[in-house]
Amino acid sequence: MRILGIETSCDETAVAVVEDGRRLLSNVIASQVEIHRRYGGVVPEVASRQHIIQIMPMVSEALGQANTSLGNIEAVAVTHGPGLAGALLVGVNMAKGLALVLGVPLVGVNHLEGHIYAAWLNDGRPEEEPGFPLLCLIASGGHTDLILMKGHGEYKLLGRTRDDAAGEAFDKAARILGLGFPGGPEIQQAAENVQANERLPRAWLKGTHDFSFSGLKTALLHRAQAADLYPPGDMDEGMRKGMVKELAAAFQDSVVDVIVTKTLDAAAEHKARGVVLGGGVTANALLRATIQASADLPVLIPPPVLCTDNGAMVGACGYFHLSCGREEGLDLDVDPSLVLG
Ligand code: KG4
Ligand code: ZN
Q1: What is the 8-class DSSP label of residue 10?
Q2: Is the beta carbon of 141 within 6 A of some atom in ligand 1?
Q3: What CATH architecture does domain 2-117+305-323 belong to?
Q4: Helix or strand or coil: residue 37?
Q5: On the chain, which terminus has fewer CB atoms closer than 10 Å, C or N?
Q6: Ligand 1 centroid distance, CA of 1 (Å)
Q7: What is the pLDDT, as a whole number, of residue 25?
Q8: 87 close to ligand 1 (CB < 6 Angstrom)
Q9: Is 42 in contact with 10 (CB distance < 8 Å)?
Q10: pTM exceeds 0.90 for this model
C-alpha cells in the first residue's frame, strides 16, 4: 500500500511516499531554517506562509522522486498535532483535499507517534524488529518523553520534561554561547573531538522518569557570564572559541548522560525488548554512540534525516493506523496540544 505522508507541524514542509509502512520511496523536505535563523527561533506566522508556498511543490516532488503519480496513492496521512496551529492547518487541509479528490482514506497522525514510527522504515525487514514492549524516547524541540509502547497504537507515558525540552535546551544553550540556530547541530559541531574538563550539573529526578534541563541551562549561563562569553566581552578570538568549545562539550555531555541513563533505566524497569529513539535531538552523534555502547538490548535509531521532522515517519505511522482500522473523516481538526499515552 502506497501512502503519502505530510508533515507541516513546525518549520519543515515535508512530504514522502511510503510503501507498506516500512519502505521509503521518496522523502522530500523544504526546510525553513534559513528564514527563521535571523529571528533566532521559529516565527509561527512566517512558518504557516512558507508551508503554503512549499506544500504543492513538495507533493509533486515527492511523487516524482517515487516515480509515481497521485492515481497510485492509496491513502493520505498527515500530522494533525501537536505543533503550531497555523502550520498544522496547511498540511491537514492539503491532505483533506487530496483524500477527497482521490477518494482514499485520510489518516491523522500524532507528530510524536510519527517520530516513533521512523524506526519502522527499515526497507521492509520486519524480522529485524525486536517486538513489544518497546521503550521509546522522543527528544525534540518541544518534547522529552519516555513512552512505553505495548503494541501498535498502545502507549503509556512514563515520564516527560518538567521544564525545557532537550532540543529547546540545546537551542537556548547555543544562544548563550553565541552559536547559531538550531542549536543542537551547532553545539554538536562545536563539541566535536573536545574532551570537556568542566562538569555541568545533571538533574536525575530519582524515582521518576521525568527530566529537567532548566537547571543545567542556568548553570551554563552562569559559567558563560563568569567567562565573559555572555554578554560577549572583549577577548582574544582563539581564547573565546576554546571556551565555547569546552562549555558546548560539557553541556552536551550532561544532556546525553541524563537521557541515556534514564532511558535505559526505564527500559530495564519495564522489561522492554528494545529501545526506539526519535526526534531531532536523537540525531545527536554522541547520544547515538553512547546509547548503542551502553545498551544490552536492541536500540533502533533512525538515520539522522529521519530523526528530525519528515513526512516519511507520518506515512509509516499512517500505514499502521490503517492496519488497525483507524482512519479519519473530512472533519479532522488540528490539535496544537495533542498528547500521546
Ligand atoms: O524533531 P525536531 O526536528 O522538531 C520538533 O519536533 O521539535 O527537533 C528539533 C530539535 C531542535 O531543538 C534542534 O536543536 C534539535 O532538535 N537537534 C539536535 C540535533 N539536530 C537537531 N540536538 C542535538 N544534536 C543534534 N545533532
Ligand atoms: Zn518533531
Answers
A1: S
A2: yes
A3: 2-Layer Sandwich (3.30)
A4: helix
A5: N
A6: 30
A7: 98
A8: no
A9: yes
A10: yes
